[in-house]
Design a protein that fits this description.
Elements: H1 2-15, E1 19-20, E2 26-28, H2 29-36, H3 41-45, E3 49-51, H4 56-70, H5 78-98, H6 105-126, H7 131-145, E4 152-155, H8 160-169, E5 179-188, E6 200-210, H9 215-231, E7 238-243, H10 250-263, H11 270-278, H12 292-296, H13 307-322, E8 328-329, E9 341-348, E10 357-363, H14 367-370, E11 378-385, H15 386-395, E12 407-411, H16 414-429, E13 434-435, H17 443-452, E14 457-461, H18 463-468, E15 471-475, E16 481-484, H19 486-498
Parallel strand pairs: 1-5, 7-8, 12-13, 12-14
Antiparallel strand pairs: 2-4, 3-4, 5-6, 6-11, 7-9, 9-10, 10-11, 14-15, 15-16
Helix pairs in contact: 1-9, 4-5, 5-6, 6-7, 9-13
The structure holds histidyl-adenosine monophosphate (HAM).
Length: 499
Amino acid sequence: MWNRVEQTARAVFGTFGFAEIRLPVFEQTELFARSIGGETDVVSKEMYTFSSQPGETFARIQREIELGIEDANWFRDEDLLVAPVRTLIDEVDRAIKAGEVDRTPTTQGRFERLRVQFASYRDTVAKGVSEEIILARLRVLLEALHFPVGESLTLRPEATASVVRAYIEHGMHTLPANVKLYYLGPMFRRERPQKGRYRQFYQIGAEVLGTSDAPGIDAEVIEMLMTFFARLKLKAAVLHINSIGDKNCRPAYVEKLRGELQKVREQLGPDSQRRIETNPLRVLDSKLESEQAIIEKLPRIGDHLCADCRSHYDEVKRQLTLRGIAYQENWRLVRGLDYYMRTTFEITAPGLGSQNAVCGGGRYDGLVELLGGPAATKGIGFAIGTDRLVLSLQEAGEGEVRQGLDVYLAWFGAAAQSAAIGLAKRLREAGLVVELPAVEMKFGKSLGLADRLKVRHAVILGDDELAAKVVTVKRLSDGVQQKLTEPELLHYLRAESES
Ligand code: HAM
């Protein structure tokens, strides 16, 4: 089932011109924190984060500096402080060049600061100024010395940030037209495991990156998704769409929403109360029964979009209709990650209880710029929760489609085993699915097993068949039995597997 889902994704996405990208399972924590947003649930409480050990050399130099500090006169002494700090700077420089410390704007900024503070400290000492001034300079230098050599890494909670990182790192903006990529693989979020919600789960996702943000791209991405679900016969999948505006119109709406939420603060639960300050949009996501009537009366983003966002959204809807795609508008669909703007969408499927979103996605035009790439780059994409999709298909009875065994090759006697090994090889080369028992079994037991495996045909090879240079074929559905030569057998099985 998992195979069929993933193969179908590859096939369908391929026809839309998407290519696969293989991404690392962990990245620097900072990448996720910056792109997904520090206040989101994912970053604030769901990430599996660990730190890689600082290198030996760093640890030794930092120890030396600490030892030097214990000496009363250390701050004037070349050997005790200046030399080790210089070595540390050289080492950081080397590590950055060697890729041991990642070359991010943060690490580069810190390194620059360290260099400037060191030069300024040395100047001060050389001028023979007062001890107080030296000490003040020194304090600043010591701050800068706390260079983060042990990187903080995180198991990826999602993959959009990684795709964007790779896009920037490999200069994909120079490629002609929009870049269309898809990925499959495990993601990790610290969750309380329950049906449809796991700590390690799988996603199939796709992203379009480039200079165009034409609404036709949004609609085609959604069309690809719906084609994929239709191909899998996922029934009753519902597409929900919304526009959450952009940096021109959303801030004013968020303030208005915050104002209205303040007025009803006392009637809200603790989570929503907290979100009034941190992220009022997320209140709209609340599933709490007691909050529903209140939320329905809140101002809606659709009434506050700027002219550009409004026409983008209208055009997305028109383009969906052009493609014959049905949708439901849902003004409360704000999504839980900070990088989104304008189009957001989710697809729900039956049989999943409260975790009924099988797919979420949207537009994220500012993300490439935020992560240090060209400002003009736009992006849109989605990720399907593969576990949930498989669950929903199974509940709908679509999980049974399994490629059955064509042949159970029952052999009796040492000579027959040797012939059976050769025959199995040739049948498999012809593309047939063959089960060859590894040990000899009694006739009744062997055929009984073939029955239980729901094989279409039992092919029997014993001394009699060997002598006559034929095999006995039994169709298990009706028990029809015949003796055939090998070429006849192949011809017969091929015809049967096509019927
Ligand atoms: P997301 O909504 O966080 O979006 O996740 C997408 C889908 O992954 C969800 O709709 C759900 O089916 C599945 N999922 C999420 N968490 C879990 C979990 N703990 N257990 C099982 N399934 C889960 C993203 O991840 C974005 N990166 C999507 C995207 C791509 N937006 C633009 N491009």
